[in-house]
Predict the structure.
Amino acid sequence: MNPDLINRLAPFRAEALGRGIPAEDVERWIAMARPSATLVTGGDGPVAGRFGGPLLLPADAPDPWFPLLATLDCAALPEETTGLQLPPDGRLLLFGFPEMTYYGGTAGQVVHIPEGTPVEERNTKYACVYGEEDDTFDDTDTLALYEQFPQQELRLAPDISLPHHFLAPSPDPDEGTVTLPGHPRAWDLAEVWDETYGDIVVDGPLHIGGYASHECTETDPVTDAAADAEEARRHRSDTAELPAPDDWTLLAQWDIGLTGREGSTLHWVIPREDLAAHRFDRAHVSFFWNP
């Protein structure tokens, strides 16, 4: 990882050592640091995509159920910055909506459009927002949320990420959770990170790669979302098995902040093997809100 990014963690290290956390525990935690990309709506970083904009899809692609949140330029998001094996070119479309789902259902989807693929502009009367064609149901609250979706250029800011979580699923199903294996001071270190990261990371609404977080992070939101994806698979009576929760990674996180959804978060997660294969049909989107 870029040494300049690691050097940003100096305030975290100093605070942790100042609290009497053993140096070896602090350094083991720092060794888990991941590069990530924070996408911001200002500054002078390179343009990496945009919030909103026209919906451009291949002619044979189905109409998406969920609204388009962001279109990302894959070539502007290299692996050394994001820590992710994104496609080398083309556009990555993030769809989603900040609403609770049932039976672990997804709150969005991901579509990759390779460079040079012919596309056409689509109608953006998303069924999630406006209902299906013959639906007379009028959900004014949903429409009010959608009308707040941002419409801005997104610029790249290289960033660094440490875990906010300190618990992990126990190998014994009767135990529920245990302290993050290999990190006996995980609770203390996650607390130090929560209190110092605001002076370390870039303040921006959309994060690509790194560790997931939300307002009540105790377990990893990625493994929680992967468990939701498995629940949804079982509910659909889908016989195709999904990778274990530990084999998923964070693709993107939107810290929402819309009126009526303050403090909520959407996470786009994906099996690592799918990301390496540039396959996005099994990506899962989870919504967290602590109103």
